Amino acid sequence: MDAYVEGYYEDPTLGAGAHQAAGVTCLQCHEAKIEDQVHEGLVWLAGDFSTDENGLLTTVGVRSDEKMCTANGCHDFDEVVAATENWGGEEGVNPHDSHQGRAIDCSNCHGAHQQSIMYCNTCHDYEVPEGWATPERAGDAA
Ligand code: HEC
Ligand code: HEC
Ligand code: HEC
Q1: Nearest Cα residue to 64 out of 22, 113, 98
Q2: Could you report the per-residue pLDDT of 73-86, keeping only the tens digit for each?
Q3: In the structure, which protein residues have their CB atom closer than 6 angstroms to any atom of ligand 3?
Q4: Ligand nearest the Cα atom of residue 117
Q5: Is-contact 16 112, C-beta < 8 A?
Q6: How far apart are alpha carbons 133 and 121 in whole angstroms?
Q7: What would the pLDDT profile of 94-140 be if each residue is shown by its tens digit?
């Protein structure tokens, strides 16, 4: 789990690192469910996993969603929606509230241990926050 722990402590550009700086522990995001821990422990012991060049697991089962991020009063989603209204100065554009839905899985865009990506730009050409990746284009929309 070294890459996850190092990123958490040493890389403030990552979601996990930014949360560490704000005093958020691993377990505040990762609910300690006993069956998960048993499974992870067994997988770890068996060496039955593969990692990419950054040492992150290639098969990631965890996704961040509204439940994870609003648990324990961490994020108020109404405030999150308000923070990104008229995104990039474009009237009516909001990554947190669109025809894709309100509160679609946060992992579509926000990486915790990896770079974030502007999912909407699979089809659109909206402003990309500094340090975020732009996805491959799948199609063109207004
Ligand atoms: C801000 C919330 C947050 C914090 C803090 C955090 N994580 Fe994560 N973690 C996630 C999310 C979300 C994912 C899904 C992949 C991603 O976004 O990078 C994930 C994925 C993982 C995975 C891959 C799990 C799997 O089976 O798919 C591991 C291992 C992990 N985290 C370990 C840690 C450790 C260890 C710490 C503390 C040193 C930590 N995380 C801190 C949110 C967090
Ligand atoms: C379609 C992409 C996308 C999705 C999905 C998404 N976000 Fe965001 N989020 C953004 C962008 C873009 C920003 C602006 C980042 C910046 O300005 O650096 C942002 C900013 C934020 C912020 C900071 C807001 C502030 O006060 O400045 C929070 C908190 C946040 N998102 C939480 C969430 C949560 C929780 C979810 C899932 C329920 C989520 N986001 C889903 C794209 C997304
Ligand atoms: C798979 C492609 C695709 C993705 C991903 C996508 N859109 Fe769209 N979007 C479209 C298409 C197609 C239209 C209709 C385009 C037109 O009217 O010319 C559209 C229209 C819109 C409009 C115009 C308003 C409306 O509803 O008529 C907005 C705003 C918008 N999208 C925001 C977003 C945001 C924010 C995201 C990311 C959360 C997103 N879209 C993701 C394809 C996509």
Answers
A1: 113
A2: 899 999 999 999 99
A3: 92-95, 98-100, 119-120, 122-124, 138-139, 141-142
A4: 2
A5: yes
A6: 10
A7: 999 999 999 899 999 999 999 999 999 999 999 999 999 999 887 77
